[in-house]
Amino acid sequence: MYTKYEICELFAEILGLSLEKMIPDTKGNEGNTGVQRPYDCHLSTEELKKLGIPVHTMDFRGWWRWELKAVRH
C-alpha cells in the first residue's frame, strides 16, 4: 500500500526526476483540513472476476519500471 506522495516518490525514482518542490501533506484528517480522508480503503475486484478479468497482483515498482521502459540491466 502506498500513499499518493509515496507513489510520486516511486515515479520520480524510476524516471530519475526530482521532487524538491513537492511537499507531502502531513495533516491528514487532523484539524480543519477541509477534506475527510479515508484511513484505509480497498476496491472490490469481485465484478472483474465475474467478467473473467484476471486480478492477480504483481510488484508495483517492477510493473511500472517495465511499463515505463525503465528496466535496469
Short structural description:
The chain has three helices and no strands. By secondary structure, the protein is mainly alpha-helical.
Structural description of this entry:
The protein is an all-alpha fold and 73 residues long. The protein has one domain. It has three helices and no strands. It has helices at 4-15, 46-50, 60-67. The longest helix is centred in the N-terminal third of the chain and has 12 residues, at 4-15. The protein starts with a helix and ends in a 6-residue tail after the last helix.
How many distinct domains? 1
Shape: flat
Query: Which percent range describes the beta-strand content?
Result: under 5%
Structural class designation: mainly alpha
User: Averaging pLDDT over every residue, what do you get?
Assistant: 81
Question: Regions with pLDDT < 50 over 5+ consecutive residues?
Answer: none
Alpha-carbon Rg, integer: 16 Å
List the defining traits of the structure above.
single chain, 73 residues, mainly alpha
